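User: I'll paste a sequence; please echo it back and then give the predicted structure.

Assistant: Echoing your sequence first, then the prediction.
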Amino acid sequence: MDIEKDWAHFLSSGEQQRLAFARLLLQRPRYAFLDEATSALDPLNEMLLCSQLAKTSIVYASISHRASLDQFHDQVLKLHSDGEWGISRVENPTTRLTAAEMSSIQAQLSAEIVLDAAFSPAT
């Protein structure tokens, strides 16, 4: 446990982002600022992790180029290259997954993990 590693050399960008979300969800700070926190995640993992975050009492703000994250926020601030900006409300945020949706996603992720383990060389 006292071994220090440069995790950027051992974990993919997606693995690092999932680990960061795990720490965020476990530590439950009052506020969180997320800068491209899902940029290396596939849409399924992005939806799963953002849905979990939305269920918490954490007040969060995201910086992202992905419109798919809009659904996990109440408002969106758009900054334009000409210096213009605008704030808009998200019409129907879908921040909560049903138990059936969560179960389906977890089954898909479990199947992916099993396949990854089966095709990954032993270390």
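The first strand starts at residue 31 and ends at 35. The chain has one domain: 7-119.
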